[in-house]
Amino acid sequence: MFQKILVANRGEIAVRIIRACREMGIKTVAVYSEADKDALHTLLADEAICIGPAPSTQSYLNMERILTATVAMKADAIHPGFGFLSENARFAELCEKCNITFIGPSAEIIHKMGNKSEARRTMMEAGVPVVPGTKEPVYTAERGLELAKEIGFPVMIKASSGGGGKGMRVSRGEEDFDMNFRNAQQESIKGFSDDTMYIEKYIEEPKHVEFQIMADKFGNVIHLGERDCSIQRRHQKVLEESPCLAISQELREKMGETAVRAAKAVGYENAGTIEFLLDKHKNFYFMEMNTRIQVEHPVTEMVSGLDLIKEQILVAAGEPLSVTQADVHLNGHAIECRINAENPKKNFMPCPGRISNIHLPGGNGVRVDTHIYNDYKVPANYDSMLLKLIVHGKNRDEAIAKMRSALGELIIEGIDTNLDFQYEILNNPEFEAGNTDTDFIPTYFPEYCK
After folding, report:
1. For the segment 356-389, what is each residue's pLDDT rounded down to a tens digit?
2. Co-location of 222 and 297 in the same domain
3. 116 pLDDT more than 80
């Protein structure tokens, strides 16, 4: 087992990883930028080291500084969390060359599944259903339009290296294709330094359903059920829940088996997520694979009882999975709300600043994953997520009632947040009834989509 793990991240996920390590008796090293000197993860870790100025390109994305810090602090493994370098194949490769364990899949797998075009081809070869679309990369709007006509409108234009909703546009016809393609490609170049695009059929009124998988170095792969991530704004997830109300046990087993087959097809190791689109006829299609732990992993932990961060660490250390598929039993219902420092009434404008007062909810079945505290100054340099509020109930109705209560108890003063917006979603009759798809927010909250 590892003696010391460097956590190459910040915010609530860094805190989450440090806590898991402490429970396992593993020492931790926190890295921090100058803006995060007083951040909670730096205070909780056994050791902390500054890796540069506030901009992430000079700190949390600086591979050389992170690897130098790892060697200097004599850590034998790196946990990348999510975001930043978590899906960077080059970073995973450098870790391997420096004899440092990267807690995640190999560089080869990250590269193969991180490139959306290559991932689609791999899944097709494995017999996994994919959304109809291009098999080869697309670089020009002219070629893209030719292929879009063959596929049939509407189509989704996507960046091959994309993620987090960036580099994505829906085109409903020839007249808007050129503009949407060029905008998506420019966003991809800016965000990922990659102009490679691909085009797929746009599935209307779909649910975004993802399956959590875990795999060890001995070829054992299991799934831990699904998460419904359909509540999104501009392809950014807002609220997630598990299980998905629209999925029967029979369909769950079928999709879970497909997810496991997809992971085995690439020789996957560690935690990962197979993302599907589920149409209104209950047909499902592979969309992409995330080769890291997900923001929304707590809802899976709540219904499965498995600690995914600890499992990641055990697998990376060469241990077999602690459970088999037969041991996995999903109990009750869990919901997660992402609480961000943003103003929904001002086009979700980020709102950094100092928190003057905070009260976090508690009680049976209520969990808060966060890095903020009273008088904490939220920096302007990073993602606006402040905390994840997670609840667990015996069924969906109880979970909704518990989340409403928890949201009503949560107080964050001094900065704007999306707390009231989350409360509005929880009180929407269509959400209560489970009538949700990826167009839920534009349909029922158009005032927030201008």
Report:
1. 999 999 999 999 999 999 999 999 999 999 999 9
2. yes
3. no
Query: In degrees rounded to 5, what are phi and psi of residue 200?
Result: -140, 160
Does the annotation mark 234 as catalytic?
Answer: no
Residue type, 81: G
Is 348 inside any structural domain? Answer: yes
> How distant, in Å, are the alpha carbons of 4, 53, 174, 406 from that of 30?
11, 15, 50, 30
Residue 135: what pLDDT?
79
Which 8-state DSSP code applies to residue 57? Answer: G
Closest-CA residue to 67 (of 87, 56, 51, 88): 51
3-state secondary structure of 44: helix
pLDDT tens digits, 404-447: 999 999 999 999 999 999 999 999 999 999 999 999 999 999 99
Range of the domain at 57: 4-103
Residue 357 tokens, joined: 């007062």
Q: Which of 384, 398, 170 is nearest to 295 (CA)?
A: 384
For 6-27, the DSSP string reads EE---HHHHHHHHHHHHHHT-E
- Residue 418 sits in a domain whose CATH number is 3.30.470.20
Catalytic residue among 16, 227, 233, 292: 292
Let me know whether 360 and 439 are in one domain.
yes
Q: Tens digit of pLDDT for each residue in 46-100?
A: 999 999 999 999 999 999 999 999 999 999 999 999 999 999 999 999 999 999 9
Side chain identity at residue 155, one-letter code:
V
121 located within any domain: no
